TrEMBL record:
SUPFAM superfamilies: beta-lactamase/transpeptidase-like. Residues 44-308 form the Beta-lactamase-related domain. It comes from Roseovarius pacificus. It holds the Pfam family Beta-lactamase. This is CubicO group peptidase, beta-lactamase class C family. Signal peptide: none annotated. InterPro entries: Beta-lactam-related, Beta-lactam/transpept-like, Diverse_Enzym_Activities. It comes from the Bacteria.
C-alpha cells in the first residue's frame, strides 16, 4: 500500500519517464548526426545493458557481413593468451619465449629474445625495433615473419617502453600455437567463436603457416559487439564465465602507455581516462566497452584510410566520450 510520500515519488518517477526518453532520443539523434559527418565511418552498434540502442550502417558491408578488423586482432590474440595461461598451456605471463616456444627462435636471433616474457609481448614492450610503419612492407614480404621480427635490433630494454609492432604480436601468436598445439584459428573458434555464437572465418597466414597474429582478422560488427560485451562483463557472456575474470582485470590494468595516442595500454587493450576499454584497428575499427556505464560498442570504418589520433580516430574518441558516454 502506498503512503503519501511513496505515492508522490511514484508520480514524480512516472512524470520523469517522458523526459528521460526524450533525452535518449535526442542523444541518438546527436550520434546519428555526428557519424554522418565522418566520411570514413561505415557502421556502429551500441548496446546498453541488454538493449541495442543504436545500430546503423551508412557505408561498407553492413552489420551482418565481415569487415577486416585490422589491429583489433591484437586484442583478440591477447584474450587467447589469457585462455592459454588459464588452461595451463603456458605457466604465467612471466614465462619466457625460450621456454614456451624455443622452436620459433632462429639461430641468429637478436641476443636476449629467448628471455622475452609473454607479458613483454602482450604489452608491446619487447624492446625490438618495430615491424609496423616503414618496416611493415619488408616484414610481410620476408620468407619468415617470426624470424624477421626476432632479428630486429634491440632498441629498448625489454619490459620498459611500448614499441608498437605487429611483429611482436605475431610472435606471441606463433608462441601460442606452439604452446597449445592449436592454430590461432582453432583457438579463436573454440575460446571465443563457439561460446559467443559468432563466426570466425580463416584469415591470412605467414609462409610457415602461422595465422597472422596482429592483423587481418575479419568479424561482423555484431560479432565485434559480443567481444565488447565480454570485456564489459568481466569475461562473462550468456550467464557463463567464458574467460577468467582475473585475466580480464589484468588486461585492463595499465602496464604502459602509447607514445602516439597517449592512451594507457594493458594486455592488448587501450584504456581511456573516462573508463573505456578499446581494441583499435587501422582505419578506425573499434571494439569498445565501458563496464561502469554498461556500454558495449562496435565500430567499423574504411580499412584503407588512416585513422590518426589527431584525426579520425580522435573524432571516434570524441564520439565515445561525448554522446555515447551519456547513454550509460
Amino acid at each position: 500500500m502506498l503512503n503519501r510520500r511513496s505515492f508522490a515519488a511514484t508520480l514524480l518517477s512516472a512524470s520523469a519517464v517522458p523526459f528521460v526518453n526524450r533525452a535518449i532520443a535526442q542523444t541518438e539523434s546527436d550520434i546519428r548526426s555526428a557519424v554522418r559527418d565522418l566520411p570514413q565511418f561505415h557502421a556502429m552498434i551500441v548496446q546498453r545493458g541488454d538493449d541495442i540502442v543504436f545500430a546503423e550502417a551508412l557505408r561498407g558491408p553492413g552489420l551482418d557481413r565481415v569487415a577486416n578488423i585490422k589491429s583489433c586482432s591484437k586484442s583478440i590474440v591477447a584474450l587467447l593468451a589469457g585462455n592459454a595461461i588459464s588452461q595451463g598451456a603456458i605457466a604465467s605471463v612471466e614465462a619466457t619465449l625460450g621456454v614456451v616456444a624455443p622452436s620459433i627462435i632462429p639461430s641468429d636471433a637478436t641476443q636476449g629474445v629467448a628471455d622475452l616474457t609473454i607479458e613483454d609481448l602482450l604489452t608491446l614492450r619487447a624492446g625490438l625495433e618495430g615491424t609496423s610503419g616503414p618496416n611493415y612492407g619488408a616484414w610481410v614480404n620476408s620468407d619468415n615473419w617470426v624470424s624477421f621480427a626476432l632479428r630486429r635490433p634491440m632498441i629498448a630494454t625489454p619490459g620498459e617502453r611500448m614499441i608498437y609492432s605487429t611483429g611482436t604480436t605475431h610472435v606471441l601468436g606463433a608462441a601460442l600455437t606452439v604452446a597449445t598445439g592449436q592454430s590461432l584459428l582453432e583457438q579463436a573458434r573454440s575460446v571465443l567463436g563457439r561460446p559467443l555464437g559468432i563466426e570466425i572465418p580463416p584469415w591470412t597466414r605467414d609462409p610457415q603457416g602461422f595465422y597472422f597474429g596482429g592483423n587481418e582478422m575479419a568479424l561482423t560488427p555484431r560479432a565485434m559487439l559480443r567481444i565488447a560485451m565480454l570485456m564489459r562483463d568481466g569475461g562473462r557472456f550468456g550467464g557463463e564465465q567464458i574467460l577468467s575474470a582475473d585475466w580480464i582485470r589484468a588486461s585492463i590494468r595499465p602496464h604502459t602507455r602509447s607514445p602516439f595516442s597517449g592512451l594507457d595500454y594493458g594486455y592488448g587493450w587501450f584504456l581511456t581516462d573516462s573508463g573505456f576499454i578499446l581494441a583499435r584497428g587501422y582505419g578506425g575499427q573499434v571494439i569498445a566497452a565501458h563496464p561502469e556505464r554498461d556500454l558495449a560498442v562496435a565500430i567499423t570504418s574504411d580499412p584503407n584510410s588512416p585513422a590518426r589520433s589527431g584525426g579520425y580516430f580522435g573524432q571516434l574518441i570524441d564520439l565515445l566520450e561525448g554522446p555515447l558516454l551519456t547513454l550509460g
